[in-house]
From TrEMBL:
The keyword Ligase applies. Pathway: Cell wall biogenesis; peptidoglycan biosynthesis. Its cofactor is Mg(2+). This is UDP-N-acetylmuramoyl-L-alanyl-D-glutamate--2,6-diaminopimelate ligase. ATP binds at residues 111-117. Residues 110-304 form the Mur ligase central domain. A motif (Meso-diaminopimelate recognition motif) lies at residues 402-405. Catalyzes the addition of meso-diaminopimelic acid to the nucleotide precursor UDP-N-acetylmuramoyl-L-alanyl-D-glutamate (UMAG) in the biosynthesis of bacterial cell-wall peptidoglycan. Carboxylation is probably crucial for Mg(2+) binding and, consequently, for the gamma-phosphate positioning of ATP. It comes from Maribellus comscasis. Keywords: ATP-binding, Cell cycle, Cell division, Cell shape, Cell wall biogenesis/degradation, Cytoplasm, Ligase, Magnesium, Nucleotide-binding, Peptidoglycan synthesis. It is found in: Cytoplasm. Residues 24-97 form the Mur ligase N-terminal catalytic domain.
Amino acid sequence: MKVEELIKNIDCLEVVGTLNRKASGIEFDSRKVEKDSVFVAQRGVHVDGHNFIIPAIGKGAGTIVCEEIPSERVSGVTYVKVENSNSVLGKLASAFYRFPSSKMKVVGATGTNGKTSIATLLFKLFRKLGYNVGLISTISYKINEAEETASHTTPDALKIQKLMTGMVDAGCEFCFMEVSSHAIHQQRISGIEFAGGIFTNITHDHLDYHKTFAGYIKAKKAFFDGLLPNAFAITNADDKNGLVMLQNTSAKKVSYSVGRMADFRCKVLESHFDGMLLNMDGHEIWTRFVGRFNASNLLAVYATAISLEQSTEEVLTEISNLQPVAGRFETIRSTDGKLAIVDYAHTPDALKNVLQAISEIRSRNEQVITVVGAGGDRDKTKRPEMTQEATLASDKVILTSDNPRTENPSDIIKDMEAGIEAQYKNKVLSIENRKEAIKTAVMIAQPGDIILIAGKGHENYQEINGVKHHFDDKEVVKEFFGIED
Ligand SMILES: CC(=O)N[C@H]1[C@@H](OP(=O)(O)OP(=O)(O)OC[C@H]2O[C@@H](n3ccc(=O)[nH]c3=O)[C@H](O)[C@@H]2O)O[C@H](CO)[C@@H](O)[C@@H]1O[C@H](C)C(=O)N[C@@H](C)C(=O)N[C@H](CCC(=O)O)C(=O)O
Ligand SMILES: Nc1ncnc2c1ncn2[C@@H]1O[C@H](COP(=O)(O)OP(=O)(O)OP(=O)(O)O)[C@@H](O)[C@H]1O
Ligand SMILES: N[C@H](CCC[C@H](N)C(=O)O)C(=O)O
Ligand SMILES: [Mg+2]
């Protein structure tokens, strides 16, 4: 492709050099540049990509897209000045791959919790309905059954466009993706034509990055502000900020609620550890999911499928056949009747919801033992709040490590201990080693008791000091339950 053709898709402030030259590919990392690449210099969180223009040229970049053209230029190189490199990267990548998102229906899910659940369930549902489908999620990137472990919940713009090209080539008519707040803020989703967006909820997380809750809301809302009039915007009317999210969107507004007035409604009729009976939009269905929050997720899935013009009857039948998502309220029972629940709850609100779901189902004489930690190098202010939620709704809490990353694990636990209220002191233990913590929970538990192992869900590693070691909550609990895989 010629640079001239690519550049037509963006607003340029200034061009120095010829546009009549080859663009062999787009790169934003100088280390990956090849001959005739277009290098897009981005201002990052840690370093400024403009510092890598010379190394990029050294590796063969013929065209430099940047927010500031360097005063010392290399002859024979084309410089294109743009206002915002982040936004331009996605548009160039989309044009380079010939606009894959316009060749299928792409639906993005955003919110603090529930994105993976909803995107994965939509993927599974549409596969069952007979379509070729793509998925971009925290767990994996999928094109039908081909699967790649995910590096990010929402990867960089270049990777997204490459994935979408693969989806189009495989005949996908739909792509369901998670849209993280980081991705919206860094414009990783620029260049994607969305058919629809879904908002789940917004509660405390990621304040290390967004600084304030208002900043976090603003980032999420920008996704809906950017939807086109022919798209749909589905929001959770049960969330305080659900309607705010859609205030300025030009997309068709759709709301859903568990129990209240909304375009799509559902009611929980019965709850058990192996599933719920729901009234979904006037129809009774049995599902294998647990908890009001999952009723909300399933309703969002239903509302999306109907907005994508699928048949109500088929959708309801397939929803009732759907299996839980990996690491989301996964239950394991020991032969002597202890119940372990492995769940990805890593925010105060997620813990609150999962524990509430447990308390609605358990009988009075069963104890709830919660094993929980918090990730290192991430929002520290959520740590004591997570402890508060855990102690409020559990009979015993074992504070432990999640992914300490580069932080000292005992410092993270200290931050969590700050959330122990005086009356709950006796129910809390701190055991830094996660395996030991799970072992202790299994030892303390009596037949019938419930052990919630929260925070890591599907993750099969524990990152300590920047190194990922194999660790799988499900595997560990099975080992202590004496269950062979
Ligand atoms: C904080 C954050 O989001 N950082 C992301 C960001 O990196 P950065 O801004 O630090 O990049 P940088 O190192 O400053 O580099 C700036 C620029 O210089 C370029 N560079 C750099 C070095 C070099 O030698 N040559 C070169 O060209 C880089 O390619 C980049 O374009 O851009 C990178 C490329 O897209 C991302 O990989 C990186 O994600 C990091 C690894 C990360 O951990 N992100 C997490 C927080 C994240 O995004 N999480 C959300 C999930 C949240 C949720 O689930 O709710 C996600 O979507 O996964
Ligand atoms: N709708 C919901 N409301 C509140 N909590 C939820 C909801 N759905 C799931 N959860 C809780 O949040 C956890 C994470 O769910 P999920 O992985 O679907 O969220 P996510 O938004 O993809 O998270 P991440 O930001 O890490 O990608 C679940 O294990 C459960 O504890
Ligand atoms: N997407 C979430 C993942 C958190 C998972 C938890 N296990 C941790 O490591 O903190 C985040 O980036 O905050
Ligand atoms: Mg996710």
